[in-house]
Write a structure and sequence with these properties.
The chain has about 120 residues and is mostly helical. Helix content is about 25%, strand content about 0%. The protein has 4 helices and no strands. One of its GO terms (cellular component) is precatalytic spliceosome.
């Protein structure tokens, strides 16, 4: 006997609200929008101030990315001592790699119950 298929649930048409399209003059490219955010420009404030353009500082693209993402640089901290990890709440939580110590289990005369040898100093 064949099972009948249950009907699929009704589709909801209100998943995405329709927003009105911006006017032709209001369309900003992503680059313009990003530059306005980095420079701290407010479009409403610009309209109130008139047509007095603010002097634009020459900022390199790397410095703009630093300001937008909120960190000091693109250098890695791998293998370096980070000041925040040396004191404070993150003390000792950094991932530091230590040299592995191997024990010989194969081809040895004694049993497996022998204690681990003390670490060599120096």
């Amino acid at each position: 006997m064949r099972r009948s298929r249950s009907p699929s649930p009704p589709r909801r048409m209100d998943r995405r609200s329709r927003s009105p399209s911006p006017a032709v003059g209001e369309v900003l490219s992503a680059r313009d929008f990003r530059e306005r955010i980095l420079q701290g420009d407010n479009p409403k404030r610009d309209e109130a101030a008139g047509d007095v353009p603010a002097p634009e500082p020459e900022i390199s693209e790397e410095e703009q990315m630093r300001a937008m993402l909120g960190f000091a640089g693109f250098d890695t901290t791998k293998g370096k001592a980070v000041e925040e990890n040396l004191r404070g709440p993150a003390l000792g939580t950094s991932n530091t790699k230590s040299k592995r110590e191997y024990r010989q289990f194969m081809n040895k005369r004694s049993s497996f119950v022998k204690p681990k040898p003390p670490p060599m100093m120096g």
